[in-house]
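= Tokenised fold =
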Amino acid sequence: MSIFIIIIALGIIVGGITVLKKSAQKFHLNKEQLERVKKRSKEQEDKDLKNK
């Protein structure tokens, strides 16, 4: 009986991962948006290093 429960649990986990992978969408950013993201990321890294 416990093996059956383990198989069901593994099936639910694998199924959930598969659904997430299929529903994931890529972001299509233009150059300006990408530059802003990189700038913001750099600012946050600098801020984090300063706060340590």
